[in-house]
Amino acid sequence: MKSNWYQQAVGYQIYPKSFRDTNGDGIGDIKGIIEKLPYLKDLGIDFIWINPIYKSPQFDGGYDISDYYALDEARFGTMADLKALIAQAHARDMKIIMDLVVNHTSDQHPWFIESRKSKDNPYRDYYHWQPATPEHLPNDWQSFFGGSTWTIDEVTGEAYFHVFAKEQPDLNWHNPKVREAIYEMVRWWLTQGIDGFRLDAISHLEKAPWDFKIKSLDGNDPWEPFMNVTGIEGYMRDLKAIFDAYDALTVGEASGVSSQQAPDWTDDQGYIDMIFELEHTFKDAQGKADILHYKETVMRWQNDLLARGWNAPYLENHDQPRVIDVMGDGTEASAKALAVAYMLLRGTPFIYQGQEIGMTNFDYTDISQVNATDTIYLYQEKLAEGLSKAQALKAATQTSRDHSRTPMQWDNTENAGFSTGTPWLAVNPNYQEKNVARAEKDPDSILALYRFLIQLRHDYSAISEGSIKFLLPSHPTVMAYEREEFLIVTNLSPKATAVTFETPLDHYWDVLTNHSVPTTSLMVLRPWGYHIYRKQ
Ligand code: ISL
Ligand code: CA
């Protein structure tokens, strides 16, 4: 029986490239993570998810792997460094999980280099190839990164399939040789001592038949042919058998798995321990989220997984702009209210580097400050549409992933203490006042609040494993829910808001502040106000 230690745990996501550089090359490295383990332990973190550090041409931030068995030593460090990190984390009773990127490889992986050489190459069937001409591609499916999912390769004149960039050809999971090679690699990494995986884009492994007709070119429809398609179950069962053999912690990025299907993926017999829902991340053209959409999505996922299954609540990751600007109004008050709203939900919450000090989006002035593949594609598309450079930059960066990849802001010394060299991506100029060193000295900081919220999870099983019941479900900005003896009320709005609860609150007292115990069912919440109550 697999242990479920993770149900009381809190995860922290590190984007290594931007976390801490210890050798002055401007790129974060494994030794930088080791240096900051005491900081993470003090925050109360139980395990760390590290974005990819494998050998890669870095076309998509390391999600284009060219050697599954090798670290990108020049950029991040050696296997000895990784083993030291694992040992140092374990010595502090923390665990390390890595990214498992097996929907695709880099186009510079030896398998693909062989595969494209000829139609009868032994590796041809490691990928998806189809006859094609520029006028007639195998179908009209669309890539997540824009454009067709098919690229014609001039060597054989056939087209190969890629859900992401053309530099990331999809592996053919129908091929038993591919499956066995991947399974062997998963076992190998677990014998290296890592504690589990975050499963990248795992729901795309199976594709519909190539003649599947997509319904429309807007919304999610273009991606339907590779979103949790029937046939994926076998691969997931094979992977589960390996994860269980090593008691590995697994969290799936499985867009296309619905909240109704998620219990089967994440209950005691499920393929993985927990799942990120990706439905709440909708942003409008101005890069702003809709709070009610967020609430409705989270309530549905919490309620659908209450009896069986396990959520991984989060607000930020390396693919999203900063939540203080997307869901908040840029103020620290908004970052705090958002922290309270999600950190006490049922599930294993994840904190993304910098979120705990309210790091913000970057005010881009030039495309050279941007790195993400899809942002650059979008910028070029906007220019081609006739937008000016400034308009194209704004349109492309409004919701771009680059905002989350600016270097971590440790202190107010040069480059925010991230590097003594020239950072690979510009540091946000607001590091002077927004940094860890300053937050650590401020008992009223966002950081102090996250430390408190993590402590609550560790101290009360009502928070970590208790049930959840949402109140005021249709309120557009107030998110309120009970966790057994706790009542959490957050006003996710810059406006003071009055709410009336069905039952009087006279039997609660406030855990966070000494507000007088409300004796009526009416409450007036301050802008971005929050309360954590516990029954006497
Ligand atoms: O399904 C989707 C549309 O919402 C996406 O969530 C898609 O599954 C997601 O973008 C996958 O992201 C992951 O794989 C990508 C990489 O660029 C991202 O950084 C990673 O998080 C390709 O490996
Ligand atoms: Ca470095």
Describe the structure.
This protein has 3 domains: 5-105 and 176-362 and 431-457, Alpha-Beta Barrel (TIM Barrel); 110-161, Oligo-1,6-glucosidase, domain 2, CATH 3.90.400.10; 467-535, Sandwich (Immunoglobulin-like), CATH 2.60.40. Helix content is 26%, strand content 15%. It is built from 15 helices and 19 strands. The chain has helices at residues 30-35, 37-43, 79-91, 110-115, 176-191, 232-245, 262-266, 291-304, 323-326, 332-343, 373-384, 389-397, 436-440, 446-459, 461-464, and strands at 11-14, 47-50, 54-55, 67-71, 95-100, 129-131, 150-152, 158-161, 196-199, 249-253, 274-276, 350-352, 469-471, 478-483, 486-491, 497-500, 508-510, 522-525, 530-535. The structure holds 6-O-alpha-D-glucopyranosyl-D-fructose and calcium ion.
What low-confidence regions span 5 or more consecutive residues with pLDDT below 50? none
- How many individual β-strands? 19
Q: Under the CATH scheme, which architecture of the largest domain would be assigned?
A: Alpha-Beta Barrel
CATH class of the largest domain: Alpha Beta
Class from helix and strand fractions: alpha/beta
Q: Major sheet, described briefly?
A: 7 strands, parallel
Give, in spatial order, the strands making up the sheet with the most strands.
Answer: 11-10-9-5-2-1-12
Shape: globular
Taking the alpha carbons of the first and last residues, their distance comes to: 36 Å
Average pLDDT rating:
95
CATH homology-level superfamily of the largest domain = Glycosidases
Indicate the multimeric state.
Answer: single chain
Give me the Rg, rounded: 23 Å
